[in-house]
Amino acid sequence: MSDKPKLAMYWASSCGGCEISVLNIGDKILIVDSVFDLAFFPCIADFKVADVRGYPDGYIDVCLFNGAIRNSENEEMAHLLRQKSKVLVAYGSCAYEGCIPALSNLTTAEATFKAVYHDNPSIDNPDGVRPQLVSQVPEGELTLPKFYNTVKSLDQVVPVDYYLPGCPPEPPQIWAVLEAVVAALTEGAELPPAGSVVGIGTVAVCDECPLEKNVKTIERFYRPYEITPEPGICLLEQGLVCMGPATVSGCGALCPQVAMGCRGCYGPLPGVDDQGAKMLSAIASVVAVGEPGEEEAELERKIAEAMETLVDPAGTFYRFSMAHSLLRRTKANGGSVQQTSS
Amino acid sequence: MSEQFEPVIVGFLCNWCSYRAADLAGTARIKYAPNMRPIRVMCTARIEPQFVLKALREGADGVLIAGCHPGECHYVEGNIKALRRHTLLKQMLRQFGVEEERVQIVWASASEGRMLAEAVDRMTEQVRALGPLRWKQTVLSGNGSVELAAAGHQEEVTLPEAEEV
Amino acid sequence: MSEKVGVYVCHCGTNIAGKVAVEEVAEWAGKQPNVEIARDYKFMCSSLGQELIEEDIKDKGLTRVVVAACSPHMHEKTFRTACQRAGLNPFLFEMANIREHDSWTTDDNDAATHKAKALVRGAIDRVVHHQPLEPLPVEINSNTLIVGGGIAGISAALELADAGYHVYMVEREPSIGGHMAQLDKTFPTLDCSACILTPKMVDVGQHDNITLLSYSEVEEVDGYLGNFTVTVRKKARYVNEELCTGCGICVEKCPKKVVDNVFEAGVGMRKVIYTPFPQAVPKYPVIDTENCTYFIRGKCKACQIFCPTDAIDFEQEDEMVKFQVGNVILATGYQLFDVSRIPRYGYGRLANVFTSLEFERLVNASGPTSGKVVLRDMETAPKSVAIVHCVGSRDQNYHEYCSKVCCMYSLKFAHLIHERLPDAQVYNFYIDVRTPGKGYEEFYHRLLDEDTNFIRGRVAEITDVPRTPEEEGKLIVQAEDTLLMLQRRIPVDMVILSPAMEAYSDSREVSQLFKMGCDFEGFFIERHPKLDPVATMTEGIFIAGACQGPKDIPDSVAQGAAAAARVASLIARGTVMMEPVRASIDEDKCCGCRLCNELCPYNAIEFHEDRKVSEVITALCQGCGACVATCPSEAITGAHFTKQQVMSEIEGILWDMITEPVAAPEPVEA
Q1: How far is the alpha carbon of B152 from chain A, nearest alpha carbon, in Å?
Q2: Domain count, chain B
Q3: B24: distance to nearest CA of chain A, Å?
Q4: In the complex, which subunits touch C with 3 or more CB pairs below 8 angstroms?
Q5: Do A247 and A278 belong to one domain?
Q6: Which of A261, C413, C421, C497 qualifies as a cystine partner to C391, CB 3.0-4.6 A?
Q7: Same domain, B102 and B154
Q8: Would the CB atoms of C633 and A202 count as touching at under 8 Å?
Q9: Is C243 among the domain residues?
């Protein structure tokens, strides 16, 4: 191995989109290639875990860890890579705050297994076979990773140096971060303080969004297929849920520009503990239903009716940030585990 | 101290109506369940879902939001904003398995000390019947990993030490 | 961060110490994070108790203070001032209410002590995050706006004007005087209402310090205590006030008469160009364009033809007047309950069922019948009259409250009928006879001596369907006489209904205009029902008279004067310090989403189109926190109720729930 700085990219519970997003930086990938040597990158190169175990501690200069922590293998790799890396980056929304995998915290591992291996129409499993933690096969004993009840973000298992949000992160942001790292390595430039969220703007998505914003008063909510929004006007005003106000900018407001409400993948504004709770508060506050002077029961009925048009609030507000939310998961034997359908 | 489960309820009381109602209940020496621990805000409009979720997470078995009757809010319609947020929050909490009785909103004007006391008593019994919530200990502990055994196994949840966040 | 918190646990004699183990709580508090010293003391609010705090601040360099005692509504101010005396910003102080909310509410000593610890720890964890705050100085403009020219408004206006301060009085009707001008005699003295009122009206009209804007309405109010900008619409009278001498020839010559539904309550007529009553102030007439022949068909113009000073101006338009005031007194009065909402009382269907105001006009010497008590045919005198108390009052179906004045004026009516028609039988149907004022009970006795028939029972029905020959051609009042325990049917010629006193139907719009509140019934909400009946929760806005709740003339006058005194006190001070518990927006964090703009009940959040950010106008903000809770970027901070403070209080109050020490993450500095 040369003594160029070492780069690693690992995927835990992920979709693979983050790996592709790195390629999305276009020809700048050549700069990355010229500066770094790969030390571990399961998506594109044939390194083994044993190789990583063999590295000295801190051997990897920058590790881009994407994907959430779903099972014991993810967690083991998180610990291993933390040990072997100087700088560990939680890359993408899954590693940052759970993202889509963490939505399974609205159910339990048991319910998941039942659905996958027993209770669905395309499964024929009369013997109720399930993956076993330990099984005997001709070659010997085979162990599988433990499937956790609760999906976690990377920083809930190991200390993380930087977070790069996005699902996936956008090329300009990725490049900004990589460029800073390259400059630090080659010119000794200073890196931001450990624990920072990088590759983001300073205010919410609304700042980047070109749609016209007026005062907000909403009568009811619509699902995206229910109405055709008027072009050029803020989607939230028209009753389409857009997480823009509670999401940090940096993506260029790509989704609202094509009349799709922001889903919040870049995560909360700095200092906000719980992105979903903030958005819930904001959105409920501007539902202009009910007035002082109305009879109490009527008021409650009208407001309940309006709020019910917002389907699946947990999935909507915590689509990306469930692992970082205050409650984090449903009660294991909570009554509404089944209510997590679309 | 009795052996039975004593719920801990965090109460958010608005300065102008419900806090004064609670004061009045005390002045009138009305005895009611000591399970509600009040926090003062100027108006229920200040209460955001984050506060409710934080209380639940930090160990409260229930959260009570008490404000002025609709139409009597010192700040015109702050309590209605609170009601809107509460309605949506309730809907969402169902998805988290948090029962409706655990997070309640009541109206009490400054002269309704007895009514507030009764509401606290009522909610205490409702939450007592539901049992402890103790989110950190029961829901967030460990990684909640599941041992996989043979088909038809019973689920085993291992609970190592309490979660550090 | 590390602060030095001083914790003081009060015994309050045995009020707290009797239930809460105060020494134990103090000792425990001393071990909590950030606590420098913790003491318990018998009476913290005493001068010795306060000195304890002051000395500790100086000697131990305390940076925060917590007092666990009674309600902050009792002594927050006391202790804040003590801190200030010792050089500590008064907002670096927090109270834990372990008396009203703890020791007084339970007999379980263990539970009380346990709860006290939670409340104390909540206060400690919160106070650590308090910031020093400074109140805002605000200058008070010495002008005052008084809305409503009835007796309460007049009373307030004269007090202020005589004190040397300028008053703008806005009255919706063409003349001031309000309902009192419609009355004949006032109870219990039987003073002639107009005689005692009109001199005051003239004073108002002539006073150097009063600008009277009659036939006008307030359209817009901007600003805050000490600095209100008011926009008033002066409706067009079609009479040029500069030229009109009040001679009255136009009224005389006007050929058209219409029913006067306002001043004469529908029992009398007026001309189309009219002054509401002879002693009207101001004296300028007004044209009722809905009925005026000129405005309908372009013909007539008699008033213009005959006016000696050419003061009639058909082209006149509404005028908008804008001015600055420092304070506002709302004295908008009342309206009467619409008795046709109770169909079984027959108002509108049965000709000789009258409302109290209609009867006032009949019995008034300058009314349509010159004071003769007659039936609807304007001729026949009744031989028997029934007066029904509590129409719409004390009634779960309409208004639960008692309207306070109706018993007295119902007795007054009985007396006047006896006076004018000595042979007539008078029946008062009552639930209770409420006569609490000076001379009121004596007045009641007088009526008893005058052989008035009192029947204790709520009237079930007033009908003209006879059951016996004696009932033919009469109005029959059916009621259960609860003292005799009999159903009774009393045939009478005339029925007078005493309707509830209601808030004006548009009181809610008015309250919104002035950014204060109405209660369920529409009456304006006072700051405190016992101790502050003329102030509202909105700084600079005061209320007086029946708009605050049903009341009689002496109470209206008293409230008018009280409101004036409050205003005068503010004006005399010149500068007032406003509470700093308000919201502010960090422009750098604001993304311009505009979620907050419509939320503020005081319209205190402005959106800047150029910079695409919102801003809170500090002086307008009343500190409710609605915007703070809404902003999803946490760009809005609510001083003294910040997220950090409340979250810490939550953690502290649940101190016993976290069984193992949890390392709190370093807060990401916002």
Answers
A1: 7
A2: 2
A3: 24
A4: A, B
A5: yes
A6: C497
A7: no
A8: no
A9: no
Whether residue C387 contacts residue C429, with contact meaning beta carbons closer than 8 Å, is answered with yes
Mean pLDDT of C134-141: 93
User: What range defines the domain where residue A131 resides?
Assistant: 107-148
Is A215 in Cβ contact with C594 (below 8 Å)? yes
Domain count, chain A: 3
pLDDT digits 0-9 by tens, C628-650: 999 999 999 999 999 999 999 99
Range of the domain at B149: 134-165
pLDDT at B21 over 70: yes
Could you tell me if C100 and C179 lie in one domain?
no
Query: C667 in a domain, yes or no?
Result: no
Strand C334-336 versus strand C501-503 pairing type: antiparallel
- Work out whether the CA dihedral A40, A42, A47, A53 comes out positive or negative: positive
CATH for A30? 3.40.50.700
Are residues C355 and C448 located together in one domain of the fold? yes
pLDDT tens digits, residue range C539-594? 899 999 999 999 999 999 999 999 999 999 999 999 999 889 999 999 999 999 99
pLDDT (0 to 100) of residue B142 = 53
Instruction: Enumerate residues 6+ apart whose C-beta is below 8 A from B16.
Output: B42, B43, B68, B73, B74, B110, C537
Question: Which of A245, A285, A293 is closest, CB to CB, to C599?
Answer: A285
Judge if C567 and C457 occupy the same domain: no
Strand, coil or helix: what is C378? coil
Residues 6+ apart with CB under 8 A from C603: C515, C620
Cβ of residue C600 closer than 8 Å to a chain A Cβ: no
Output the pLDDT for position C1. 58
Rounded distance, CA C230 to CA C418, Å? 49
Rounded to the nearest angstrom, the minimum Cα separation between A78 and chain B is: 15
Neighbours of A204 (CB within 10 A): 29
Q: Residue A182: which pLDDT band, with cuts at 50, 70 and 90? A: confident
Residue A67: which residues within 8 A CB-CB, separation 6 or more? A10, A11, A12, A13, A14, A18, A74, A92, A94, A95, A101
Rounded to whole angstroms, the Cα distance separating B33 from B13 reads: 16
Domain extent, residue C549, equals 144-234+322-333+504-573
ipTM of predicted complex:
0.91
Look at C122 and B45 and tell me if their CB atoms are within 8 Å: no
The total number of residues shown for chain B amounts to 165
Q: Which residues of B fall within a CB distance of 8 Å from C72?
A: 40
Do C492 and C352 fall within a single domain?
yes
Q: Which residue from C518, C590, C647 is facing A203, i.e. has the nearest CB?
A: C590
Residue A334 has a pLDDT of 33
**B1 in a domain, yes or no?**
no
Enumerate residues 333 to 352 of chain C having a beta carbon within 8 A of any beta carbon in chain A.
Answer: none
Average pLDDT over residues C295-322: 95
In A, which residues are within 8 Å of B107 by CB distance? 296
Nearest CB to A332 within list B87, B92, B144: B144
